[in-house]
Automatic annotation (TrEMBL):
Bilayer-crossing regions: 33-58, 91-116, 128-155, 167-186, 217-240, 268-288, 308-327, 348-370, 390-410, 478-503
Keyword set includes Methyltransferase: no
GO molecular function, one term: secondary active p-aminobenzoyl-glutamate transmembrane transporter activity
A GO BP annotation: p-aminobenzoyl-glutamate transmembrane transport
Organism of provenance: Alteraurantiacibacter buctensis
Entry keyword set: Membrane, Transmembrane, Transmembrane helix
Protein name stated in the entry: AbgT family transporter
Length: 525
């Protein structure tokens, strides 16, 4: 049923529905680069006003008073101009994108990705393709931002391989990657990162509180199940019918026939051997006596794998480059090192518009931090939660909503939580809510807005991937496709959060919804 819908759908309908209005208004927006330029102008004006009016907030950890700084001040203007190259090249997503695309360009153009997708097609039930892509997108979040860069275009290719609209695959892959930090089958590196921030806030009230990286596991499973099921329904009933129809394009796409040729099978065997060698090399760098750079034996016992997490981008680059080269040599699509270098260069070509966008996006993010408007906004939002006096079952959904809205101002989930946690976590502990449950509620709001936030660089990247199949596609069409998913994920997350508190369900192993302060802390408060 869903296959027929997304294959024949079209957004040329002239109905008066809300999503048609969103699409029309979105398509009237200027280029994303121009949007960031305008946002920088607004940011400068707000910083000047805030500085003149003396806007400030007290940092809940350091006790330092944070005041809004004017971006037109002598010091910040000097910083803007002198650090412009560093601000651009130091923007974290930029380095990840370029490094991974160097490897992915070889793997894709050599034919490795196409062969892998054809092999995968043989075992995929077409009726389950939509939920499978959402779920795999969630799992890909365990490799950090690399999941967006690698999996989203593969999702489009997978749908095209099945003879279905690749635009739907791209949208669903993007949705899965975005929400994987709040709903997943397994905890991952983000759980360690986010609970590390939670611990900082909790220890302001209870100094010996230590994080439990598994503290959200059961909650993650519930959110994952809800997002897969609701996303499946919304994708089939709402998103697919209104996406522009696709009849094929000039970019290389695997054919619908899922059978592998003898050459392809030979290439996959060679790629598999290289992948095994890379895995063995990584394992040896974790366990080799006296030389284990990917395992921290002397550091924090809670995060001994942090070096491995930090090296994932480099490992994935080596894996895709090596496996792609091996596949190409065995399949005859690569004859020498010059072919490899040419494919690396070609792999970067589709990202040229992204490089232009990131110049302005990186400066907006940096200037927002220089002005202190980001942490001050987060601290003020947490203060409003404290003053609302709402019951716990309502307080946590309020936190979820605040997290979602603040995502338009602070794109990084960990950076936003760093500013909010020192206020929100101890405040809710005093209201008998555990740090684990507070973290779970925050994560729901932090992820859904990424689907529609212009501050999310991967929203624009997804649009660029869509334009490879449909060059005339614009931001409004993508926004109208992701908005229904964002809304249903938000509503499902709110309902699950409120129900979790009402039923007093444990959010994870060794965790609970409620929290009882130690006696000494209770007496002090």
């Amino acid at each position: 049923m869903d296959a027929a819908v997304d294959k024949a759908g079209g957004s040329a309908e002239t109905g008066r529905g809300f999503l048609n209005w969103v699409e029309r208004m979105g398509n009237r927006l200027p280029d994303p680069v121009a949007i960031f330029v305008a946002m920088i102008g607004v940011l400068v004006a707000v910083s000047v006003i805030g500085s003149a009016l003396g806007w400030s907030a007290v940092h809940p950890v350091t006790g330092e008073e944070l005041a809004v700084k004017s971006l037109l001040s002598q010091d910040l203007l000097r910083q803007l101009l002198s650090e412009m190259p560093r601000t651009y090249t130091g923007f974290a997503p930029l380095g990840m994108v370029l490094v991974l695309l160097l490897g992915a360009g070889v793997a894709e153009q050599a034919g490795l990705f196409a062969a892998l997708l054809k092999k995968a097609m043989g075992g995929v039930n077409q009726r389950l393709l939509v939920p499978s892509v959402i779920l795999i997108g969630m799992l890909s979040s365990h490799v950090g931002d690399a999941g967006f860069i690698i999996f989203i275009p593969l999702a489009g290719m997978l749908f095209a391989s099945a003879g279905r609209n690749p635009l739907l695959g791209l949208v669903l892959g993007f949705a899965g990657c975005c929400t994987g930090l709040a709903g997943n089958l397994l905890p991952g590196q983000y759980d360690v990162l986010i609970f590390g921030v939670t611990q900082t806030g909790a220890q302001l009230l209870v100094p010996d509180w230590s994080m439990n990286p598994l503290g959200n596991w059961w909650f993650l499973l519930a959110i994952a199940a809800a997002n897969v099921l609701t996303g499946w329904l919304v994708a089939v009933k709402i998103v697919a019918p209104r996406l522009p129809s696709w009849q094929g394009s000039s970019i290389p796409t695997p054919v619908v026939d899922a059978s592998l040729s003898a050459t392809e099978r030979r290439g996959l065997r060679a790629a598999g051997i290289v992948a095994l060698l890379v895995a063995l090399a990584v394992a040896s760098l974790m366990v080799f006596p006296g030389f284990s750079p990917l395992y921290d034996h002397a550091g924090d016992a809670d995060v001994p794998l942090r070096p491995l997490f930090g090296a994932l981008v480099g490992i994935l680059f080596a894996l895709m480059l090596g496996a792609g080269w091996a596949y190409g040599r065995a399949a005859g699509t690569i004859t020498g090192h010059r072919d490899v270098i040419a494919k690396m260069a070609t792999g970067l070509t589709p990202m040229l518009p992204y490089l232009v966008l990131i110049f302005f996006a990186s400066h907006f993010v940096a200037m927002f931090g220089w002005s202190n408007l980001g942490p001050i906004t987060a601290i003020a939002g947490a203060g409003l939660l404290r003053e609302s006096g709402a019951p716990t079952a309502l307080m946590l959904p309020i936190l979820t909503t605040a997290s979602a809205w603040l995502d338009f101002l602070i794109a990084s989930g960990s950076a936003k939580w760093t500013a909010m946690a020192p206020v929100a976590v101890p405040m809710l502990m005093l209201l008998d809510v555990s740090p684990e449950m507070t973290t779970a509620a925050y994560r729901v709001g932090d992820t859904v807005t990424n689907l529609i936030s212009p501050l999310n660089p991967y929203f624009v990247m997804t649009l660029l991937f869509c334009q490879r199949y449909l060059p005339q596609m614009r931001m409004g069409t993508l926004l109208a496709a992701t908005l229904p998913l964002a809304v249903v994920f938000y509503l499902a997350g709110m309902a699950i959060t409120a129900g979790w508190v009402a039923l007093d369900l444990p959010p994870g192993p060794g965790a609970s919804v409620g929290y009882e302060l130690p006696a000494a802390v209770s007496r002090a408060n």
